[in-house]
Specification:
Elements lengths: L2 H20 L10 E6 L13 E2 L7 E5 L1 H8 L5 E2 L2 E9 L2 E8 L2 E3 L15 E3 L24 H9 L3
Parallel strand pairs: 1-6, 5-8
Antiparallel strand pairs: 1-3, 2-7, 4-7, 5-6
Helix pairs in contact: 1-2
Length: 161
């Protein structure tokens, strides 16, 4: 898969996930996006020789990167994870943050991609994580998982340019 095509799929999947999340959350979701990526969450059998795998990346998280950095991170020798679950995670510093949970199996064979039937390649559109006690049909507030410094909060709140 080319990096350009992967970038198109990432953008398309981000918009789909963004639109989906708006049905569930009360937060204003900015149209400026960042991504947090969890690598190799599938803990695959290393004997699966048809895939490239990176077992040393188990539990690796890369936080708050842009779409071009996502492409550089996940496109390896023309191969990408066979599934990437994308969901709106939170709002932080006036950006909508997406979580990308990635399989550890990398392939260039489109038949291996889990979500091809949706025209999103390896991307699976998922909803935001519902809070405990979620009531069907009632929107909820996303909680930020990132801490903003007191100065940044004050600046954003009172010193907007």
């Amino acid at each position: 898969m080319t990096k350009e095509f992967f970038l198109q799929l990432l953008k398309k999947s981000s918009v789909l996930s963004y639109s989906f999340a708006k049905n569930y959350v009360v937060n204003e979701l900015p149209e400026d996006f960042k991504y947090s990526v969890e690598l190799n969450v599938s803990y695959d059998d290393p004997s699966l020789t048809q895939f490239d795998m990176y077992p040393n990346e188990n539990d690796t998280k890369i936080l708050l990167i842009n779409e071009l950095e996502v492409v550089e991170l996940l496109c390896r020798n023309g191969k990408v994870p066979v599934w990437i679950d994308i969901s709106v995670d939170c709002v932080y510093k006036n950006k909508t943050i997406f979580n990308l949970e990635c399989a550890g199996r990398y392939s260039d064979d489109e038949k291996e991609f889990y979500y091809n039937r949706n025209d999103t390649g390896p991307f699976g559109i998922k909803g935001p994580t519902f809070p405990i006690g979620y009531i069907d049909g009632k929107k909820f507030k996303l909680k930020s998982k990132y801490k903003m410094s007191l100065f940044s909060w004050f600046k954003n709140k009172f010193l907007k340019n």
